[in-house]
Amino acid sequence: MSEETTITKADAVPSPRDGASGEALLEVTGLTKHFPIHAGFPIKHKVGAVQAVDGIDLTIHTGESFGLVGESGCGKSTTGRLITRLLEPTGGRISYRGRDITRATRKELMPIRSEIQMIFQDPYSSLNPRQTVGTIIGGPMEINDINPAGGREQRVRELLETVGLNPEHYNRFPHEFSGGQRQRIGVARALALEPKLIVADEPVSALDVSIQAQVVNLLRKVQEETGIAFLFIAHDLAIVRHFTQRVAVMYLGKIVEVGDRDSIYNRPRHPYTHALLSAVPEVNIDGADRERIRLAGDVPSPINPPSGCRFRTRCWKARDLCASQEPPLIQLGGNQDGHLTACHFPEEPTIAARGEDIVLDPALAAIEGTAQ
Ligand SMILES: Nc1ncnc2c1ncn2[C@@H]1O[C@H](COP(=O)(O)OP(=O)(O)O)[C@@H](O)[C@H]1O
Ligand code: SF4
Ligand SMILES: [Mg+2]
């Protein structure tokens, strides 16, 4: 039935690369978050659920930089919040350094709270405007009773320097800084407790394009120098390209493709990954037959996702099988170890393979005069 028949180990764990030790730091299996929807008066009852995250498996190795990409509404932030235990999962398992923390209580989480930190998307709202930079960065050390040699203030000044800010600005307030500088404060705050994992949720999306590269470079430098593992969440494949060793592509609560960075960028198999990549100008930049895939419409509602393959309502290759059977996330023939794809009719393992343009949005096609 499928054009692709070669199936190898479904549970293959993608191989770690430079900088990563190979030891699983965080392992997530079947992770699920359904937000209940309530209606009715005076007594509310559950009428449905937003299937924000629906059974995902992920492994982040010690020291590894891992990218999670997908359009807005695909469940990336929810995944990040589940991993940092800011949200309670509906199902699945989260294991950190071999310990099951899925249902760990606040108290049980205490010893590892400081080891997993988060950098938020919005540097404006994620910093307390009434606290000085010194308090914002040093506060977590106080709460966790961490007393660095030389004192906390000294450590905060060092951290300010690490993130490219003036240590003399210790007593300033967030409003005295630009957006890029505020995100640097957020980075310094995340670093203060010497975490083992940082979940960075679209840390540059709220910043001016001219500032984005600077903050990405800072994060990359921090990652390389400290060996802290990163889960870097982005909607844009261009941003994670230079930063991550492995990438997972998420669509409507599911991981549809995962693999080593080069494998994902050079040999994507899932149509959705192809579509996302076609929006990245630097990929196949000098290809004579440059691809143009435009995704029509928005991500469907996660309250009532399409049956079978969730991408089928926007996929140009969809057939009957796609509606009746959910494609498993597996390694396909031609893919390297650990590159897994969930598609019944995957693309050829090279972006150069397709000569013709695929323009899915008829309005766009008409505007550009490419309608057939
Ligand atoms: N607290 C919540 N209650 C109900 N629905 C939510 C909540 N948080 C997120 N969602 C929904 O879950 C889906 C995934 O959201 P999110 O994880 O923020 O996606 P992303 O970060 O990829 O944009 C969206 O449809 C969003 O509206
Ligand atoms: S399973 Fe079918 S609908 Fe889904 S991505 Fe593959 S071809 Fe498209
Ligand atoms: Mg988000």
List the helices and strands and how they pair.
Layout: E1 24-39, E2 45-61, E3 65-69, H1 76-83, E4 91-96, E5 99-100, H2 106-113, E6 116-119, H3 133-143, H4 152-162, H5 179-191, E7 197-201, H6 209-226, E8 229-234, H7 237-241, E9 246-251, E10 254-260, H8 261-266, H9 271-278, E11 293-294, H10 320-324, E12 330-331, E13 340-341, E14 358-359, H11 362-368
Parallel strand pairs: 3-8, 3-9, 6-7, 7-8, 11-14
Antiparallel strand pairs: 1-2, 1-4, 4-5, 9-10, 10-13, 12-13
Helix pairs in contact: 3-4, 3-5, 4-5, 5-6
Bound molecules: adenosine-5'-diphosphate, iron/sulfur cluster (SF4) and magnesium ion.
The site of adenosine-5'-diphosphate has 12 residues, from β2 and α1.
Structural class: alpha/beta
- In CATH, what is the class of the domain at 22-38 and 50-115 and 195-371? Alpha Beta
Quickly count the helices: 11
Overall mean pLDDT: 85
Order of helices and strands: EEEHEEHEHHHEHEHEEHHEHEEEH
The fraction of residues assigned to DSSP E strands is 15-25%
**Roughly how much helix do the residues carry, as a percent range?**
25-40%
Shape: globular
List of distinct ligands in this structure? adenosine-5'-diphosphate, iron/sulfur cluster, magnesium ion
What is the number of E strands? Answer: 14
The CATH topology of the domain at 22-38 and 50-115 and 195-371 is: Rossmann fold
Q: Low-confidence stretches at least 5 residues in length (pLDDT < 50)? A: 1-18, 283-290, 353-372
Describe the strand arrangement of the main beta sheet, using strand numbers. Answer: 6-7-8-3-9-10-13-12
Taking the alpha carbons of the first and last residues, their distance comes to 30 Å
Q: Biggest β-sheet: count, sense, barrel?
A: 8 strands, mixed
Query: How large, in whole angstroms, is the Cα Rg?
Result: 22 Å
CATH homologous superfamily of the domain at 22-38 and 50-115 and 195-371, by name? P-loop containing nucleotide triphosphate hydrolases
- The assigned CATH architecture of the domain at 22-38 and 50-115 and 195-371 is 3-Layer(aba) Sandwich
